[in-house]
């Protein structure tokens, strides 16, 4: 899977494709959650941030810039939300709790660090493409078409000019491979 | 500082003294902070593809939220009364020195004035109740005309307008006129401000200005009129942002330091001097719920690179060289 393939998902989302939207969630939610947690230091808040980003993505789907890399796009949204959260608790501030405030300030600075941002954005893109890239060629095509582009086996078979049976066997192979490499976070997708 | 301890800090496994030590170490120098920044990023990336989040379960909530039918207007449930907020951000040229309502020199006009640090409530001849924020001035006729109720505002005020469909209520706020048939709204209109800000919480109001067609504002929207560009920009707003001042709160949302200081000067009747103009680049977000000015400054000191010093009647801001 390369950039244009994940962006195909984004394009589908912009057209209101629920399946593509769900796939996107399963592909990115875990890693975005990891990021949010590192900065906000709160599991519950981190999960809400990720969910919020996707709800927002869906709500704004018609205005999405589908030229942008989806990983970078989602990362930016998570980052912005983390900033909002980190700045917000001033509201309930107890003056005694200076450490917490300092900690938030540290996290805000860390989020604003461009080198760190680049690193995270790159890693985010890489993780997903890495696993897919390792698939054998036809296997990869079959996987991308059925799992990421939302085609059924019959459509995939027609498009790739192979039999449905071959699609099935490639899928079995692909799924086995993906389970091995992306076992954890793709398990729900497979 | 040992990376292992820093990572325990990222994971939220440090408490008390150990945690304070890490925090102080990171804040000690720019280099330490940068080291930490990269460490958090690298640590996060190392956790990618681990199953930290149950995405099946967590997707359920996203699924529900994105399928849900969104009611077009929450306002329907809020009843008939319109609550309108108008803000003209004009900065402190005017320095009213009296709290009294008195007859103005020009005929039947009445002026209600509040100094810095004090807000008050005024009842107009038609029964309309106006809560006047600090450093503001409202003028209105002793008796309203038969066809129209007109008032002039500099500063900020919250209006609960007595409903009277025969006599529209118009607030003149800078170049912006706000016309309502009844109900409640808030106007903020300080003199030197770059923008005239009008927010409607409920109901419907019409905005008029010489340079544009009248605009009907929807509930929970803010209209920002840029006075130099003559441009009108409509944005969504939360109730909290709209009427926070009434309950003594100060709400900032990506607000430039200059505006923050103006608000603080008005509310607390203090004077600031900025030592280093680069500080003006700071933006502030947060809500201060009836804190004292000392507490507000303390929050700023902790959450930004700004330090404060009191000298004479002034509070001096300078860059924190920590």
Largest sheet of chain A: none
* Count of alpha and pi helical runs of chain B: 7
Low-confidence stretches of chain A: 183-190
List the secondary-structure elements of chain B in sequence, H or E. Answer: HHHHEEEEEEEEEEEEEEEHEHEEHEE
**Sheet bearing the most strands of chain B, described?**
15 strands, mixed
Tally of DSSP β-strands of chain A: 0
Q: What low-confidence regions of chain B span 5 or more consecutive residues with pLDDT below 50?
A: 69-106
Mean pLDDT figure of chain A? 79
Overall radius of gyration of chain B: 25 Å
Radius of gyration of chain A, CA atoms, in whole angstroms: 19 Å
Q: Count structural domains of chain A.
A: 2
Mean pLDDT across residues of chain B: 76
Q: CATH top level of the largest domain in chain B?
A: Mainly Beta
Overall domain count of chain B = 3
Q: Give the CATH topology of the largest domain in chain B.
A: Jelly Rolls
In angstroms, what separates the terminal alpha carbons of chain B?
A: 18 Å
CATH architecture identity of the largest domain in chain B: Sandwich
Q: What percentage of the residues of chain B does DSSP assign to strands (E)?
A: 35-45%
Structure keywords:
heterodimer; A: 190 residues; mainly alpha; Rna Polymerase Sigma Factor, Chain: A; Arc Repressor Mutant, subunit A; 2 domains; 10 helices; B: 322 residues; alpha+beta; Jelly Rolls; Phage tail protein beta-alpha-beta fold; 7 helices; 25% helix
Summarize this structure briefly.
By secondary structure, chain A is mainly α. Chain A folds into two domains: 3-130, RNA polymerase sigma factor, region 2, helix turn helix motif (Rna Polymerase Sigma Factor, Chain: A); 134-190, Orthogonal Bundle (Arc Repressor Mutant, subunit A).
